[in-house]
Structure formats: C-alpha cells, structure tokens
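Form P-L/3: holo structure prediction, ligand zinc ion.
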Amino acid sequence: MVRVDSAVAYCHSYLICYSMDVNTNVPLVEKEEISVPSFSKQSLDNLSTCDIRLQKLFLSVVKEMDCTILCGYRNEEDQERAFQKGLSKVHFPHSKHNTFPSVAVDVVPYPIDWNDRQRFVDLYHAARRHAIVMRIRIRWGADWDMDGNYWEREGWEVDGPHFELAPDMLKLN
Ligand SMILES: [Zn+2]
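OUTPUT (holo model):
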C-alpha cells in the first residue's frame, strides 16, 4: 500500500512529493516532482488584503490553474493611480477594491498572455466551480450582469482580471 505524503516542501511553484510505504515509512521513490502551482510571495501578499472568502477561493483555484494576483486592496493613492492609468473607472472610495479587506481581486492566468482571452474564460470557469463547492457567489468583470454572456462591454484589460463577491454575498456581512 502506497500513500503520497504531500506538502513536504514547497519549492517555488512546485510541490515536491515523497512516496512512502505507509507501513514502514520507507521512501519508495527518492523524490518526485508533481506540478502543483502555488502563488508567489507577491501574489500571496496581494491576496492577503482580500476578504477571507476570496483568499480561500483563489488558494484553491491556483492548484488547478496557475494564476497571479495582480491586486487586492487599493488605498486612495493606489486607486487614483489605477484611475489615471485607465485600470479603474472610478475614484476612491467607489471601487470594490477600496474596502478593507477588499471584496474584489484582480487575477490573471499565469504565464500572463493578454491576447489569450480564452484562458481568462477558463480561469473564470475554474473559479466558479471552486466557488460553488465553497458556497460562494462571485461576479466576474467580463460578465457584470451575470447573464452568462461575456465581454458585452469594452475595457476588457480592466474587466478580464476582475473578480468580486456577488452583491448577495456582501449583504451577509
Ligand atoms: Zn478589479
């Protein structure tokens, strides 16, 4: 009988696994690398500024699909900078990124390819699946009215990475 003793060591974005004989604890394979993506320090720092439900969600999602957390909470200075750059359409404090913890998070598939919209859709579908399991409802920036039709309005570089807790989740707070 063989079990895999997981979470032995994290090495950048790979989990190093050791297969052990469960009775003797003798390693059967010296070292086996399996590809389980995990967040970089910067992504974790960004994610840590978000609502705990978004943290749990994307810590789960990243194991299935590698991604990068671009932004969680934005203070007034960050928000005005984002507005100037065209990355946000509103001034402080009107973005969902401006509450602390943030109820919005910007996430992109990793490696980042802004021309590959399908991977953004794939990331949303992965996030939605994990969210259903966790009983969380999310709204994606490419489907603001939540009707299942994506990219109905312009500004996709702004909206494509944007995920937020759905309005009914905020009422429960
Ligand atoms: Zn956003």
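COMMENT: The pocket of zinc ion is lined by residues 97, 104, 106, 162 (CB under 6 Å).
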